[in-house]
Amino acid sequence: MIEINLETLNMVLSKMLNEKVINSNYEMEELQGGTVGSVWLVKGIACTFSGKEKNYKLVLKFQEKWERDNDPDSWRREYDLYSSGLDTFFLDDLKWPECYYYEMNQEENEVKLWLEYIDGVSGINLSGDIYEQSAYALGRFQGKLYAEKPQLLDKITNLSGLDYVKNFYLNYKSWNVVYDYIRSEKCEIPKHLCEMIIEIDKNSEAIFEKIKKLPVVLCHRDFWVENIFSKEGKIFLIDWDTTGWGYLGEDLASLIADEADVEYMVEYYQRCVPAFYKGFSEFADITNIEDDCVKEFCLLMYGYRIIEWFLDAEDNAVQKKLQIDTLQKIYEITKIL
């Protein structure tokens, strides 16, 4: 468990509660953990200068240095973004959790973020209406930045690169385990689904040339249901560590295909894509776009990854069926005119 400095905690709580805190207690519950970082719910009672006792909840995110493939500084990106002032460009319907305090330990290469706790609807509990609202709100946010081109964005140097999706796809494609499997006789996945991915491989160069014609926007790049929270009619996005320059519609692939509610994937595609473009169009003219490439993004980003999940399931028939069903829904989406 991470040790909390009480002086720092009281300072954070003073900002959070808009009142000087002179004493506090806390208990911690790990929300998410990994080998190089962890996320904790910190809760307790704060005693203010006026003598009041107030219950509180906040999130402490701790991140050590690590290197993601083709994106070595992603470990500190949220620190850089929170300290940049990007939040001044959020609209009322889409925000990130407020950061009360951020710390960087240069010697140890560690980051601590003291964040607002969002007690909202997320994950499998998201409804179709929230999916659509999320797509619309993201479209408005990206459209506003695209139209206004604030100088602030030029000053944020630690953003993932424009070829993030391409590099991600090529890395998976070069992995013989998944590449060879869908081309082998022992493959258990229906042939038409394998052919769908193989066809993408054959046409990948032309597809990426088509993608390059799309507007370049600031992408969240982890826009899936576990990072989306709905609270009091607003959408909150967490985990901005992969954020960077990408292409219009790229984030929708995560919303639709990343461990999605398989039963409603086609419906959510049909609802979310128009909602996203409606939001974006409030700020920028995109009537000249002939193909949104969302279907291609789904396959480039999740085709081989789903094959990996299928193979990792081994003898788990339920999980293997889930991955096949997901590929089938992507197949159905690619057939929508």
Proportion in β-strands: 15-25%
Number of DSSP strand runs: 12
From the 3D structure, determine the CATH topology of the largest domain. Aminoglycoside 3'-phosphotransferase, Chain: A, domain 2
H/E element sequence: HEEEEHEEEEHHHHHEEEEHHHH
Q: What is the highest CATH level, the class of the largest domain?
A: Alpha Beta
Helix content: 40-55%
What do the pLDDT scores average to?
Answer: 95
Described by the principal axes of the CA atoms, the overall outline is globular
Show unreliable segments.
none
CATH superfamily membership of the largest domain, which one? Aminoglycoside phosphotransferase (APH), C-terminal lobe
Q: What would CATH call the architecture of the largest domain?
A: Alpha-Beta Complex
Q: Classify the secondary structure makeup into a structural class.
A: alpha+beta
**H/I helix tally:** 11
Question: End-to-end distance, in Å?
Answer: 52 Å
> Main beta sheet: strand number and arrangement?
6 strands, antiparallel
Radius of gyration: 22 Å
- The total domain count is 2
Overview features:
Aminoglycoside 3'-phosphotransferase, Chain: A, domain 2, 337 residues, 42% helix, alpha+beta, single chain, globular, six-stranded antiparallel beta sheet, 20% strand, Phosphorylase Kinase, domain 1, four-stranded mixed beta sheet, 11 helices
Task: Write up this protein.
The mean pLDDT is 95. The chain has 337 residues and is an alpha+beta fold. α3 packs parallel to α9, α5 packs parallel to α10 and α8 packs across α10. β6 and β7 (110-116) form a beta hairpin. The chain has helices spanning 6-17, 77-82, 128-148, 151-155, 164-173, 176-181, 191-211, 250-257, 265-281, 294-312, 317-334; strands spanning 21-24, 27-33, 37-48, 53-64, 94-95, 99-105, 110-116, 121-122, 216-219, 228-231, 234-237, 244-247. The chain is globular, with a radius of gyration of 22 Å. 35% of the residues are buried. Strands 1, 2, 3, 4, 6 and 7 form a 6-stranded antiparallel sheet that branches. Strands 5-11-10-8 form a 4-stranded mixed sheet. A two-stranded antiparallel sheet has the order 9-12. The protein has 11 helices and 12 strands. It folds into 2 domains: 6-116, Phosphorylase Kinase, domain 1, CATH 3.30.200; 122-334, Aminoglycoside 3'-phosphotransferase, Chain: A, domain 2.
